Amino acid sequence: MKQGSITNRFRWYILIPLLSFAILLSFMFFVLFKNYATEYQQNQLISQAQNISEALSSTSTHMSMGGMGMYLRFLYQSMEEEVWVVDKDLQIVTRGRGAITYQQLPEEAKQLVTEVFEGKSSINEGFNLYLDDESITVGTPLYVSSQIVGVVLVHTKVENVDTWVNQGLIYLLISLLIGMSISFVAAWLLSRRFTKPLIEMSQMTSQIASGETDVTVNYRYEDELGTLAQSLNHMAVQLKQASNQRFEMERLRKNFIASVSHELKTPVTVLSGAIESLMDRMVDTEDIESYYEKMQRNVLVLKRLISDLLELTRLDSPDFTFEKQRVNTYEIMDHCLFNAQLSGSEKKIHWHVDVKEMPQMLGDEDRLTQLFTILLDNAIQYSYPDKVISVIYRPEERQLIFEDEGEGIDEHDLPHIFDQFYKGKSEQGRGSGLGLALASKIAKVHDLDLRIESEKGVYTRVIVQFGGNS
Fold first, then answer.
1. Which CATH superfamily is domain 322-465 in?
2. How many angstroms separate the CA atoms of 98 and 85, rounded?
3. In contact, 304 and 432? CB cutoff 8 Å
4. Residue 216 CB coordination number (10 Å)
5. What's the angle, vertex CA 259, arms to CA 407 and CA 276, rounded to 5?
6. Which residues pair with 63 in a beta bridge?
């Protein structure tokens, strides 16, 4: 992902609404401020005109119009505004800088004078023709003994109002620039905060695509991005586990091929040698029968090995199913014990059996027979001669226990005892190494837990824990 593209777009997505809002708000503020400044100035002019009118009213009873003109000139020296006075006969207009006739005034100015003589203060811009600059004029009545005897006109330049507005505009522009700068910094920080995890996630997916699964995204907030980060982290963990499983399966496959090759090598070599000797007539007549017996034993070994391999393959298949039916495990065990006692007679094995309370369960009778037979055969094979093999069922713990007094198992071999083709040092040359692996698979599909306890040279105990379907 191009790093700058989404970051810049995100910044503009923040800045454009902020700038638009700031410009609109500034325009509205400017209009309101201009109206306020104009209204404030007009009110000030009206107040000033009323103050002048009150001052003139207190002196006009004993002051001629000429004296009033001198008085106005005196006032004008300390004022920026220009003041005119119109008498009640509308004949003479005195002002701080001279006089003009009423008839010289434009109609708009005359209208203002007329409105003021009616007792109302009024404002307009009709006197611009006789003033130096564009101005605003305020008129207010001049009272003497509660009678309107004239009109006071106060003129102020429009530029005075504009100065206020321009100052306000300057402050507004400065505030707008500061606000835009703050908005830009905020947009930059926010865009960095929101796009940084996205960039990290993009880099993470690229690393995963290249085969590197030991990667994570550090994002601690519980929001949509946090959920996405957790999903990606979970995916990375799953991919790492899948990768490890793939490597482990490949290792097991290679070990399996090597183990099968090793297990097949011995009987095939024996068979090949025996057949070649017989074909070349290198065997004495009295030894031919023993050669046939060796060949038969090795054929049986191959047959058993191939059968176990096929059975393991079927049990490992995800499509493997078998028809479960309720079976009596005591009857199955009784049959297996009968065969085992015959097999153990050569080693003078003594038997301690208590399995009458074994339960019924859902399962496959043939495979349960195979499971019990494997465990009994192992007990006989690794038991010392003239020792006791115990087969006991404990109904309280729902446990079936096989225990022999024999060679035992090395402690470091116990974790691998159910691996295919695994043999301890003491087992080399005996068995195929598939029996307990096959027993473990059969137990698993029947919801049985299989575990082994042992002490080297003392005993081996196999515990079959029955599950919820029994």
1. Histidine kinase-like ATPase, C-terminal domain (3.30.565.10)
2. 11
3. yes
4. 12
5. 100
6. none
Query: Residues 110-129, buried b or exposed e (16+ Cβ, 10 A)?
Result: eebbebbbeeebbbeebbbe
Q: Topology of domain 224-315, per CATH? A: Helix Hairpins (1.10.287)
Closest CA to 143 of 152, 134, 135: 152
Scan for tokens 């009678």, then name that residue.
147
pLDDT tens, position by position, 104-158? 677 777 788 888 888 887 777 766 666 666 777 888 888 877 788 788 888 777 6
Residues β-bridged to residue 327? 361
**Span 184-220, pLDDT tens digits:** 777 777 777 777 777 777 777 887 777 777 777 777 7
Distance between CA atoms of 288 and 281, rounded to whole angstroms? Answer: 10
Cβ atoms of 406 and 413 within 8 Å: the answer is no
Confidence (pTM): 0.44
Rounded CA separation 389/63 (Å): 146
Q: How far apart are the first and last CA of the chain?
A: 58
Q: Are 400 and 464 in contact (CB under 8 A)?
A: yes
CATH superfamily of 3-163: PAS domain (3.30.450.20)
Contact predicate 199/8, CB 8 Å = no
Domain spans of the chain, in order of start:
3-163, 224-315, 322-465
With beta carbons less than 8 A apart as the criterion, state whether 115 and 125 touch. no
CA angle centred on 184, ends 182 and 189, rounded to 5°: 95
Task: Kindly report, residue by residue over 333-366, the tens digit of the pLDDT.
Answer: 998 899 888 888 888 999 999 999 999 999 888 8
Crossing angle, helix 65-76 and helix 3-59, to 10 degrees? Answer: 150
